[in-house]
Structure formats: C-alpha cells, structure tokens
Amino acid sequence: MPRYFFHVIDGRDIIDNDGTVLPGLREARAEAIRTAGSMLRDEGDRFWNSTEWQMNVTDASGQSVLKLRFSAADQEITPGGNRKF
Q1: What is the pLDDT of residue 72?
Q2: What pLDDT score was predicted for residue 78?
Q3: CA-based nearest residue to 7, from 53, 51, 41
C-alpha cells in the first residue's frame, strides 16, 4: 500500500516525515479532509488572519498528489449593516 505525507504550510512549515499508509488516493483525500478539519477545529483562532493555509499531500517519491487551500477573513460590518471592503 502507498504511503502519503501530509505537509502543512500556515505561516510555518509542518513537515510530515512519517506519512500514513493508505490503500489509495481516495483514502488519502478522506484523510486530508479529516486532518485539515481537526487542525482548523483545534487552531481555528490562528486561521482567521487572512493568511492562506495549505496542505500538500505527497506520495513516497515526494510528488504532490493533492493540495488543499484555505483562507478566511472577517468582513468588517459598519453601523447600518453594510459591509466595508
């Protein structure tokens, strides 16, 4: 079974040196979503700084096979309910 590595760039580089053995790309997608969801849940306050957050999933040869990108920003609301851009 192939090994996939889940690297995260969110203002710091978190390199997955161990990887996870999974049956295939479909399972790697599901694992990427689960892992990203957990990180966003656990570190959500850090996420709201408008900086793009990425997860790059590579195979054992270092080839990128999946990439997730996230960013978030609060939209300032002015009195009267209008958004200020």
Answers
A1: 78
A2: 64
A3: 53
Decide if 8 contacts 47 (C-beta within 8 A).
no
Q: Is the model more confident about 44 or about 81?
A: 44
pLDDT at 35: 93
Supply the mean pLDDT for the chain.
86
Query: Is the model more confident about 51 or about 30?
Result: 30
Q: Which own/partner pairs from 25-30 qualify as long-range (CB within 8 Å, at least 24 positions apart)?
A: 25/65, 25/66, 28/2, 28/4, 28/57, 28/65, 28/66, 29/66
Residues 6+ apart with CB under 8 A from 85: 75
The token pair at 24 is 């295939």
Local structure of 26: helix, strand or coil: helix
Cα Rg for the chain, rounded, in angstroms?
Answer: 16
Tokens 């054992």 correspond to 60
The span from the CA of 27 to the CA of 12, in Å, is: 26
